[in-house]
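User: Can you help me understand a structure? I only have the sequence.
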Amino acid sequence: MAYRRKTRVWSLALCASTILAFSGSGAQAADQFKQAADGASIECAVSARELTRFALVDDQFASVSKISTGTPYNDFAVTNEPLRGDIYVSVPETFAARSISFFATTKKGFVYKVSCQVEPVPAVQVFITNPAIATNKAAGWESETPLETSALRLIQAMANDRTVDGFEVRQSSALPARVGDLEVQLIADYRGSALAGKVIRLANRGRKPLTLAEADLASSGTLAISIAQPTLQSGESTVAFIVGTNGEIGQ
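Assistant: Let's start by predicting it. Here is the structure, written out as tokens:
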């Protein structure tokens, strides 16, 4: 099942077009999803009358630094919830400013600058993700075995529709492409630290049987390939699993 030697670049069009994007909601939405790197600024909206919860995905808040006005009626409060590591922000009715800001340090050592508009909305939740955390988790999973073995482990996970710790999994909405009698469609895309995997649907749209070879699906960055059913009769389809180095596969 493993394939590593350099072959002709796979010419089938397999570019995924789905982009998973979380953006901050406006004043009408209760939940906001933010993605930030270390030291980044996070813009959001907080409730003018009720609590706003800030939660880190796979991390916890360690401390919050803000400037106090010295007058409780014109200052917002930050409360740390120690069990989950969330923080809750409350703004008094007498708060005059239209925005708040503070710096937050997490237990994994990241620092964020939070700047939020005060809006007349119900209780708000702000969820913050940092891609570096997932990348570190994926790198840990990949380093448990040699790279080629990890590529085979990823194929097994994709074949059994299992999640892999730290890997981003995106379902694709790409339309099928035709290469002769072969119809090709990207189904799912797995992205880790060093490895990337693709789940491909292959269908025979011709009138004659079609035999698929692993070398036909391999590019220079391919580490492992598995084709569930290499020989397809007319009208039949199968699934292929391809794993390569991140940034190379699918190019």
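Now, to help you interpret it: The radius of gyration is 24 Å. The chain has two domains: 32-129, 133-245. Let me know which part you'd like to focus on.
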